[in-house]
Design goal:
Distance between the termini: 36 Å
Radius of gyration: 22 Å
Strand order of the largest sheet: 4-10-9-8-7-5-6
Shape: globular
Number of domains: 2
CATH topology of the largest domain: Aspartate Aminotransferase, domain 2
CATH architecture of the largest domain: 3-Layer(aba) Sandwich
CATH superfamily of the largest domain: Type I PLP-dependent aspartate aminotransferase-like (Major domain)
Mean pLDDT: 94
Number of helices: 15
Low-confidence stretches: none
CATH class of the largest domain: Alpha Beta
Order of helices and strands: HHEEEHHEHEHEHEHEHEEHHHHEHEEEH
Largest sheet: 7 strands, mixed
Number of strands: 14
Amino acid sequence: MDIFERITKNRGPIGQYQKAGHGYFAFPKLEGEISAHMKFRGKEVLTWSLNNYLGLGNHPEVRKADAAAAAEYGMAYPMGARMMSGQTRKHEELEQALASFVQKEDAFLLNYGYQGMSSIIDAVTTRNDVIVYDSEAHACILDGMRMSLAKRFVFPHNNMENLEKQLERAVKRADQQGGGVLVITEGVFGMAGDLGNLKAVCDLKKKYDFRLLVDDAHGFGTMGATGMGTGEHFGVQDEIDLYFSTFAKSMAGIGGFVASGKDVVDYLRYNMRSQTYAKSLPMPMVIGALKRLEMLRTMPELRENLWNVVNALQSGLREAGFDIGATESPVTPVYMRGGIIEATNLILDLRENHNIFCSVVIYPVVPKGDILLRLIPTAMHNLEDVKETITAFNICRAKLQAGEYESETFQDISALRV
């Protein structure tokens, strides 16, 4: 069969909804200043869909630093990959600052978090190694394992008893092959908001020989006494062998980093293909990241504001009888029951009649019959936003339970596109 003919007939598990949802449910356009209140289809909406945890995305000091760096260097400098012609003192300064903050010997700056994580896994493992990973691991981890030649074993999400069983198998196989074992989990799981059981994972190091890679994209800047991340939260930062995070969440930027011992980071500098063959991160993004990191470190009030909103939102939802799962992070899932029609009409009602914009997740990302509304609180939200949202959720839940969303009572989605 012709490749193009095949992809025309089979759009994929998410792409199958393209005609019905493009421009509204998928690829929607949020416009205006980055804020808790933005424009969607020409009207203001209260938005809970931005990973701008500390409110740095549009902070005046960040805007000033970004603008000054762009004016001085433009968006092209430095040209070329870092190994060849794209290295600068500022890139090194950012790496040193990141390593110091997360209490590791060294750090390596990455152009993007997604490609960075995938490339880390590929770089540190061989066909003789074994990877053991959490079943709820992010897509970038799954793609990294697909690139790797290592054998892999999966354990059910946060199931420490099963993890130990997989470690027994993994260590035995690695010993037979002359390889090692890499355990991969997350600090904060970005869909459900629950935490990886890092303390229990690290405790298993006393019994089994393995290295630990933690994806802390949602934990960096939000978790721990200083915002260092989930390792600090559990008191096990020293036991994380490879610490990874992205700038796309708390830092509200582009890029990421991996931190570890100096020898390991030096190895990654010369062996991560996604960085060796990619243009260096532009200088305005590097200088902007330095400013963001400085504010993250020196302005604890940003994190305090975030958690004031988080606590109000999550406690309010629980008191109203909503199921928000086992979240212990700012990520706030709200679970409801219904099919795709109910989910569609529920979101239409929230956006069109209550001016509330949040992300919706349905099958195949969650089981059939489940609806997951994912809210991301930020330091830019306030308690009035929380109150307004819970009121709207109460109204929409009552309609859902009464069956009012079962029939397509709203106008065709294609007519709503702008």
